[in-house]
C-alpha cells in the first residue's frame, strides 16, 4: 500500500457504502469493512486497483470486539488509517410503545456506538500512529427532523451529528470531521419503503430533484475527504435533492 | 418462538396470540403495527421480511411458519 492514503469504510458491502468504495478506490487504499464476507468480495470486484484494498469483517453489534480486531488487523498488515467513513447503519421503524432494550442496543450499536469505538481506537498512538486526518459520518436528514415511528433511527442520527461537532473541535486542526446527510436514496435499506407504489409516488412529489442515487452521496464524501474541503469541519452536508427545504403544499 | 409470541401479543396489545388468529382482525392491526412486527422479526431472528410478505399471510401461524423456515 505505497504512499496513497488509507481509508476505512464501514457498511462497504451494500448500498451507499459500496458506491463510496467504488468511487474512492481510484485515489485511495481502502479497508472495506462489513459483516458479510461474500458481499464485501462483490464490492471489491467493483473497485479499481483491486490489489490496493483489503477487507475486514466486523459485526458492529459486538462492540467489545471492535478494538482488538482493528488493533490486530493494523499490526498484522503493517498499515495505519488516515480516513474513516462510517456508512454502516440499520433502520428500525416501530411504534414507541413496542421499543425494547434489544432494539435500542442493536441500532445504537451499529449507527453510533461502533463509530465511537472505532474512532477512539484509531486515535491511540500505539495503534494508529496519530495518522487519523479525516472522518465522515453518513448521517440522515431524519436526525434533524422527524417521522412517525422513526424514534430510534432519528435519535442515532442526531447523536452522530452531535458527536461530529464535538470531535471537529477536539481533533482540530489535525483531523477534520463532517457528516453527509442523505435524503431518500435507492439502496437495499430503502427498498422496502420505495417498493410501495404509494410511498414512491409521494417521494417523487416531495423531492424537487427526485430520489437519490448512491453516487450522489459518494461524491459528497469524496469532496469532504479531499483537500478541496481543507477548510471544512464540523458541518452537516445535506445531500437530499432539496427534500428538507420543501414546504410546498402541492 | 414462545417468546416471540409474547412479543407479538405486546405489539398487538392483547393478552396472548394463538396460531390460528387472523392477523387483520386484531384491533391494533395497521401499517405501523406491521412495521413494528418487521422490526421485531429483524431483532429476534435477524430476518428481513417485507410488508408485502406479511400482508400475504392470513394467520399468526402462517407468519411463524415463514419465520421458522427462513430464520438464520
Ligand atoms: N438509503 C437511504 O435512503 C438513506 C437515507 C439517509 C441515510 N442513510 C444512511 O446511509 C448509510 C448507508 O445506508 P444504505 O442505504 O447504503 O443501507 P444498506 O444498503 O442497508 O447498507 C448498510 C450496510 O451496513 C451493514 N451493517 C448493518 N448492521 C451491521 C453490523 N452489525 N455490522 C456490520 N455491518 C452492518 C449492512 O449489512 P447487512 O446488509 O448485513 O445488514 C449493510 O451492508 C446508513 O448509515 C443509513 O442510515 C441511507
Helix content of chain B: 55-70%
The CATH first-level class of chain B comes to Mainly Alpha
Main pleated sheet of chain A: 7 strands, parallel
Low-confidence stretches of chain B: none
Q: Output the CATH topology of chain B.
A: Non-ribosomal Peptide Synthetase Peptidyl Carrier Protein, Chain A
Number of domains of chain B: 1
What would you call the shape of chain B? Answer: globular
Give the distance, in angstroms, between the N- and C-terminal Cα atoms of chain A: 53 Å
Structural account:
The complex is a heterodimer of chains A (250) and B (72). Chain A has 250 residues and is an alpha/beta fold. Chain A has helices spanning 15-24, 37-46, 63-77, 101-122, 125-128, 151-171, 188-194, 197-206, 214-225, and strands spanning 6-10, 29-34, 54-57, 83-86, 134-138, 176-182, 236-239. Chain A contains 9 helices and 7 strands. The mean pLDDT of chain A is 96. The longest helix of chain A has 22 residues, at 101-122. Chain A is globular and about 55 Å long. Chain A has a 7-stranded parallel beta sheet, sandwiched between helices. In chain A, helix 1 (15-24) runs parallel beside helix 2, helix 1 (15-24) crosses helix 9 and helix 4 (101-122) runs parallel beside helix 6 (151-171). Chain B has a single domain (2-70), classed as ACP-like (Non-ribosomal Peptide Synthetase Peptidyl Carrier Protein, Chain A), CATH 1.10.1200. Chain B has helices at residues 2-11, 31-45, 51-55, 60-70. In chain B, 57% of the residues lie in helices and 0% in strands. Chain B is mainly alpha-helical and 72 residues long. In chain B, helix 1 runs antiparallel to helix 2 (31-45). Chain B is globular and about 30 Å long. The mean pLDDT of chain B is 91. The chains are: A alpha/beta (250), B mainly alpha (72). Chains A and B meet through helix 4 of A and helix 1 and helix 2 of B. NADP nicotinamide-adenine-dinucleotide phosphate (NAP) binds at residues 11, 13-17, 34-36, 59-61, 87-90, 110, 138, 140, 182, 184-185, 187-190 of chain A.
